[in-house]
Design goal:
Elements: E1 5-9, H1 10-15, H2 17-25, E2 29-34, E3 37-42, H3 45-79
Parallel strand pairs: 1-2
Antiparallel strand pairs: 2-3
Protein name: Phd_YefM
Family: Belongs to the phD/YefM antitoxin family.
Length: 84
C-alpha cells in the first residue's frame, strides 16, 4: 500500500518532478523540505481548490460579521443620542 503523503527535499523533487507530480495526480500529497524543514506542499488540484473555497467562505463570513457589528454599533450610537 502506498502512503498518502511523502516528504521530499527540494533537490530530490527537482530531479524527480514528473514522478512526484504523478504521485500527487493519483491523490498523494508531498511535503517539500529544505534543510529538513517543511516549506511547501504539493497537493491534488481538488484539494487546492477546496482550500481556496474555504478561504473565500471564511472571508465572506468575516465581512458579514464585520458589517453586522458595524450596524449594531451605529444603532447603539444612535440610541444613545450620538448622531453624526
Amino acid at each position: 500500500m502506498t502512503p498518502d503523503f511523502e516528504e521530499v527535499s527540494i533537490s530530490i523533487l527537482r530531479d524527480r518532478l514528473a514522478e512526484k507530480v504523478g504521485f500527487v495526480r493519483e491523490g498523494g500529497q508531498i511535503y517539500v523540505t529544505h534543510h529538513g524543514r517543511r516549506v511547501a506542499a504539493l497537493v491534488p488540484i481538488w484539494h487546492a481548490d477546496l482550500y481556496a473555497d474555504v478561504e473565500a467562505w471564511t472571508l465572506r463570513d468575516m465581512q458579514r460579521r464585520q458589517h453586522e457589528a458595524l450596524k449594531a454599533w451605529e444603532t447603539l450610537r444612535r440610541n444613545a443620542g450620538y448622531e453624526d
